Amino acid sequence: MSDKNSSSIKNFLNDAGNRALIFQVVLLAVVVFVxxxxxxxxxxxxxxxxxxxxxAFLNQPAGFPVLIHLIEYTEANTYGRxxxxxxxxTVVISLMGIALATIIGVVMGLAxxxxxxxxxxxxxxxxxxxxxxxxxxxxxxxYFAVLATLPIPKNSIIFGDFFLNKRGIxxxxxxxxxxxxxxxxxxxxxxxxxxxxxxWAKKRQTRTGLWFPAYWASFGTIIGITFLxxxxxxFPIEFDLPQKSRFNVTGGMVLPPEFVAVLVAxxxxxxxxxAEIVRAGILSVNWGQTEAARSLGLKDSLTQRLIVLPQALRxxxxxxxxxxxxxxxxxxxxxxxxxxxxxxxxxxxxxxxxGQAIENIGxxxxxxxxxxxxxxxxxxxxxxxxxxxxx
Amino acid sequence: xxxxxxxxxxxxxxxxxxxxxxxxxxxxxxxxxxxxxxLFSFYILxxxxxxxxxxxxxxxxxSGASKAxxxxxxxxxxxxxVYFEQFMYGLYPSxxxxxxxxxxxxLVILLGTYAVKTVNKLYLSLVIxxxxxxxxxxxxxxxxxxxxxxxTSLWGGLFLTTLLGVVGIVASFxxxxxxxxxxxxxxxxxxxxxxxxxxxxxxxxxxxxxxMASVMIPLFLPEGxxxxxxxxxxxxxxxxxxxxxxxVIRGGLQAIPKxxxxxxxxxxxxxxxxxxxxxxxxxxxxxIPGIVNTFIGLFxxxxxxxxxxxxxxxxxxxxxxxxxxxxxxxxxxYAFAGFIYWAACFGMSRYSMRIERKLETGxxxx
Lengths: 391, 366
Description:
The complex is a heterodimer of chains A (391) and B (366).
Chain A: H1 2-14, H2 16-49, H3 79-112, H4 117-130, H5 135-146, E1 157-159, E2 162-165, E3 168-171, E4 173-176, H6 180-208, H7 214-232, E5 237-240, E6 243-244, E7 249-250, E8 253-255, H8 257-284, H9 287-295, H10 300-330, H11 342-354, H12 357-386
Chain B: H1 19-27, H2 32-58, H3 78-89, H4 98-113, H5 121-141, H6 157-184, H7 188-203, H8 206-220, H9 229-255, H10 258-266, H11 271-286, H12 288-301, H13 313-321, H14 330-359
């Protein structure tokens, strides 16, 4: 009897499906138990330390300054507004970094493939140097070793209306006057017109095979109509030029050194990685494609633009997406040199003042999660658009 | 009389197609654009190289005990010399640093034993992975055999950087393999646990994980139970890089043809046997470049512990540049740190290329 029993247990355990079931039940139990254990500890700890939970603190006045703010912000504003300011700073630096890094990456990637030996070597040195040195070190370098050693405002380096000193880069600030609405209207109108033009040109090409340089034409249209609107409304833009006073530079638009250091470090560092991706993508296109294009009589520039690059893009886009995601996440390193982005404002100052670790860290993670998701969704859409359509 | 065939000697190649002149014409001056690019490159080299040599070597001061000794108009390497011990060991007591050196020598000897043919590699690996870390731990922290106790808050410099990197690499690798296998598994619960873990970690920056490790972990533990900050940071780093490792390994698993799984099943191998003997060796070999890239990334990312208040190599250099007696030494400090990180990362990537070639077994398509 007992023998039969034990053998039925053995049979039960010998079945892979049953073993999987048991394993999963145990795993689930462990996960649930650990979660419960941590949660009860958390509650006890919060109660002990007298920390209230919830997001009510977002409506309280923050009382700390945020040095770089693109929307109105003072110390009297709430934590919620400080959070929005930091969020904008993170998004702005990420998007600008992505744009710059892509340009640097494409240029350096093409340079590494150049048939000019010297250019290829220089690009290799760039890539191998920058991607093998920690990003944080590079940020420190730009901030503490380069920008901090610029002259004091009194001795600013001057290029025309641009001033360069310890406090940042000063440039003329365009200020719109009455009647600027006409220019904006003209600009929007010209964009609509050029979209219509491109659509019409494509349709005509599929119908008749005739090629119309729609992109150049729409470029001209946009510039032309916008310029016309500027003339009609009487140039309603004035520039607020930076002025050198005795000890300082006033007026104009200023790029603070923290911003410049983070942007330069992020884009040159990520650019080195993108260069390798671009190079690998172009090398992945079979040489026969280039030969075929040449035997059809295409010029080298057309071969690159119409044959090689579209095929290379399919290989380039997926790893490029992860570089963009890395860049957005790496913008958090700005916290180390006082660029007021999410980590610095929310996980640093706000957390220290309110003590509400769970809410603040959760908020941060949520934002980064959303940012990552948006970038990868956009890139996946683009990838789909570019991917090979097979029958 | 038979005519004897005498081949006339081959003509030499045209003068302008071989040799240095031809190389220059082909690689530097083949078109007007190329000529321009060459000149431009020379200009950049001219801008960069002479000042760097002037600053770093010709005008530099190499020895001295204080800033006053740096009389040249170039770099002051005396700064690095004075702080060298701190850069290497952090605030670890000077008379105890032999313990760190001994641990390193021990590791070199153990790794060197791999080259001896008669040694059982399995046992040796077990010694390195299980026994050695215990010895290293006690040597570092002391408290046994009359060794003085050294608090982990004193650990720093390149020592801490290496420790974080090595522990992170060694611990995250098996965890990453498990996560990758879990993600590929047919068991829905195991699979979702792994996916949620991997995707959550990968969506956020490492700094948030480090902040969690240093700020939030104490909140989740029972009152009075708290463990070392270094250990918490190590856990954070390991979990973070395990998630990335898992994705790299998953790529390798996906690249193995289905036939290999089926063949392993047909041989009657259990799940673990088929994974360890058939699938993983092939999958891991395929993704060596990805694994090494993750390691290099991890090594560079150890610098972020500075932000949560630990003083690794970069942290110590940053602290030294704020010394009132040595103000203005930032570039020297960063150049030194940059060189060390660069050498380590570049070395790792070159070494991985060597392994790749060594393990190349001819599957690769041409």
